[in-house]
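call fold target=inorganic diphosphatase
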Amino acid sequence: MVYHTADSQINVRLRLLRNSVSAHARVPLTRRWCLLTHIPPESLHRAHNMSFSTEERGNPNTLSYRIYFKSSDGKYISPFHDIPMYADEAQNIFHMVVEVPRWTNAKMEIATKDPLNPIKQDVKKGNLRYVANVFPHKGYIWNYGAIPQTWEDPGHKDNDTGCCGDNDPIDVCEIGNKVCCRGDVIKVKVLGVLAMIDEGETDWKVIAINVDDPNAKDFNNISDVKRLKPGYLEATVDWFRRYKVPDGKPENQFAFNGEFKDKDFATETIKATHGFWKALISQQTNAGELNCKNTCVSEGDSPFCCSADEAKAVVDGSCPCGEASPVPSSVDKWFYYAKN
């Protein structure tokens, strides 16, 4: 895959570092990144045996509901910035933050503009957003979520899609057998990627499988999904093409004529979005309305550095956990459309 980011400061500096005859040019690329951006290397690749937990706040199925994340030592963290992208870099195993369990409809997402980026339900015109059921689909047909420490840069025009990024972490569709829970942080093996164009923005959809799935060993590339789960990829394209139609939106479009790209292409795409995130968190790119406060990545002199006490104050300032409100019965409605 070819990256067209030479105009960004971060890539110019990296190129200078690569060509330099100084000691910096003789250290690994990840270390050079850390020298350049002042991001501690352990915050990017300390993932082995890491564990995470969640804390619910507010009332489920209401505007107040949030899911905050904690590290293994009980410190509040951002799932966008503090959870490492890699679970095992040597094996190209990635972390995935599960936002939406399979078969559910509530459009939950990492709140990229809120302090500590908790998971919350998307809101449209003041109402909680639920994904419509377009026959024959019911809710999301995979465990859906995002890879942390990635960002689809809205200032970067992708050469393959001809569109800029959607300003979110890169999305993942996990196709294993287990129905995950909101806020689960799982380790996934990447198999391929779909290039969706959503209202003029690039919105990559990574296809992956939980490494703990009993069949994970049989899935190593997108061709294995076609072979072992016939119809699943076609259903995935159909789902993404039509899921906004009940809201009065046009069908979504795709680059590559809706064909899935393979594991290698997907992995390079993820790495590119990780590069965009690094530029974001090191203030090489304008964050705009994004909240980049974190407790593990940024150094103390960074405006993005958030102390443990500050993070706790954010959570304490939210609504205490309460009883769930009922889900509207309209969420179960099925919509029927002829395929174009």
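return ok
The chain is about 20% helix and 20% strand. Confidence is low (pLDDT under 50) at residues 1-37.
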